[in-house]
Fold MFS transporter.
Amino acid sequence: MLDGPLQDVGERAFRLTLAGTLVAALGQGLTLPFLVLYLHEVLGASLPLAGAVLAVAAVAGLAATTVGGPLGDRIGLGRLAALGLVVQAAGTALLATGAGVGVATLGVLLNNVGNGLVWPALNGLVAVQVPEARRSRAFALRFGLLNGGLGVGGLLSGWVVSLDRPASFHLVYGIDAASTAVFALLIALGLRRTPGFAAPDRPLHRDDVRIGGYGAVLRDRPFAGYLAVAVALGVFGYAQMNGPWAAFAVAEGGTSTRVIGFAFAANTAVIVVLQLAVERRTRAWRRSRLLVAAALLWTLAWLVTGAAALPGLRGIPGDVGFVLALAVFGLGETFYSPVGGALPNALASEHLRGRYNALAGATWPVGGFVGPPLAGLLLGGARPGAWIGVVAVGTAVTAAASAVLGRRLPDHVERPAADR
């Protein structure tokens, strides 16, 4: 717990972290929708090759996350975040050169490796920068700024990027690389004497060494339970929104790509507008209750998606339904974001904080590995509509599992101190 002058230093460091998050998100928003398009249409990679590049890069990112946990505990979370951002910026800069598929593949790999180091490090860093009573709000605020930056960057990219002008891709990837490098400099220079930048000065106790490592983290039963819930939310939630949802809406619901764009814009708008209000209204809630609410709202989003795809609602009613579905999903995200970063850090011990955040961060790519293939089997089968049933049941069961998890969490984790 921070107090006095040290707390002031931590909160200034957190504001600098927020500023860097926003700058980097604006750059990433410029390029986020276009990677497969860039590899295929501009650099000439086949679609199977582009898919293979992304799959290998995802594995590399997961491996980096696993290595980054103990590395962050050893060298400090701030140093690890700066290192990851430099690697990420280097990868994006290679993509900006347009030098060919081989160079671009290396760029994608470096980008994912850097991202795999950055996310767990930043989550742990934020947890050290702010007092425990304010962590939920801190993670919610960072999530809202991140989505706002990505949304604005995505809107700007529509005015800049064109297949008729390949140089426009080089431009946005160059801006993305520069914005990521700026974030790295903010951390490396601005945070070097702030909490969490370096590893604790105190030597580890012998018992810490003996019980340390990922084995100790996984033996923490409440945390293992949270990991199971987070993986399920990834498989039946985020992994379905990022790709399968759009495929279902177009193929089964007969909607247009323009409506898909409106739906994702609505998702971002809900997060940006409502994130802090939801966090403020739910500040006294049990954390497991927030997980339950997120999972149930995602269940509702999938059911609305299924209703929008009914033949009798083709046209404007169905299109409105699809936009509403992702807006509801975004509302669910505002309930999840205060928990996703704060709960693992509430359970973590200081000398294993990097490992706790690494495993929590790994639930995202694991969900990404399982979710899309599952959706592919369902959407490509004889009854594509079964996809709705499976993902809706999956999130509903996850809601029930979250309620059970609440009975296993220590009281100080389940009922965080109210923000003063």
